[in-house]
# Entry
Amino acid sequence: MFFGGLFGTVALLVYSLSGALFRGPSELAQRLRRRDTDQDGSQPSSPRSGRDRLGPVVNAIGGAAARPFMPKSVESQSALRKSLTHAGIYSATAMQLIVGLKVILLVVGAVAGYFIGAAIGGIAIWVAPYVGAVSGFMGPTLWLRRKVSNRKASLERSLPDALDLMVVCVEAGLTIDAAVQRVGHEIALAHPEISKEFGITHMETRIGVARVDALRNLGQRTGSPALQSLAAMLVQTEKFGTSIAQALRVHGDSLRVKRQHAAEEQAAKTTVKLAFPVVLFIFPCLIVVLGGPAFILFFKSPMFNK
# Structure
């Protein structure tokens, strides 16, 4: 019964987390789609699926489980929400689900560590539960940090290509807002992350947010230094009335040179990083393979037979 309840709790939490992170169309979009379908007469509107009916219940259970362990201070909540935003997770319930997942994995890690320690025996029966609990509790935090790092790297890799397309659009006569919309639409297949961010920026300008504020929100929302410098450059260009196309071209060239320098730096570090596996793994194998027969003949020599 204990393992059955533990499995059910973890399954519900994973279900709610997947529902929050990979949420489908909104209720309004679904109602409008059903209304258009009904007016066309192609098929009647279908009732809500089991996932749609169970989703709010699972989110409520996950929120109730995480509520006692939610960060109390405004600074902690702001830091966690900022990390989620930098990771590209904009769901309103993502913070509760992350905290709830930490609590569940802490309990699961402690229980798994206890059984592993009991199987090993000795002092491991006392150390393994603590190691499992700490690992389970820190797992979501480490996953979130890695997702933030990967997303920033993806945005920085895709930004020069996006800037080249923006230069073409601006020189063709489009405004900055239209260029951002067009580039976000065209680059969606190759670079979905920056396409999503450009789409959010365009929607902010459409609902009445000033262009300067929308560009600044782009840099703050992603946390990428490259996008922050792009937003600052566009704001200064608009303020002083300089050529936007020329500024975008120069900025794109500088980002591409910076990416080339980073690649050269990584290539220069390769020799140092290869020294440790070569000394620890490759050299001993070479010594055994090349010197093994000589050592065998040496020990079989008459000097050792005496």
Q: What stands out?
A: The chain has a mean pLDDT of 78.
